Protein 1
Amino acid sequence: MKNKLEKLKSIKKFSIQKIKKEKIKIIFGICIGAMFGTVIGISVGNVLDLMLPGVLIGTLIGGVFGGLIALVITEIPAS
């Protein structure tokens, strides 16, 4: 009985650590996406001479890139 409790505690601890790592990865991916978005947005805005719409369009594109990057990062197993 005591052995089963120990196993359950270790599983719970492991799953909490894993969830924390996943959250960090997702946040990291979103941050990368935001950086891509601002860079793409500023470059598109400079090309079109429309700063705000360019930044908005770029941020949308960057958000998509960030989502993909976040997926790729979260697929890599946590070490």
Note: The CA atoms of residues 25 and 32 lie 11 Å apart.
Protein 2
Amino acid sequence: KKQGFALDRGENEKDVRCIAAPIRNFQGKIIAAVSISGPAFRIDVNTRNNQKEALLEISKKISKRLGYKEKSQREEKKEVKTIEKFSKV
């Protein structure tokens, strides 16, 4: 969750790798995902970061077209503090 993407390092299929990123709607809810999959030799440690960054950029563009607006880190921290405050009650 915190990193903003999912990575399959062959847990399902030994020689297949997958990277996925969420697509959010105008309410910020995850409604879909975009992913790339391929043989391990094409999605390896050396290429994975570039592929991940491209995928995250694409997912952000799609989300933006659906009305999603990213919260600033300040808003997120404030929201977490509020949730923590009320969860103790």
Note: Residues 43 and 50 are 10 Å apart (CA to CA).
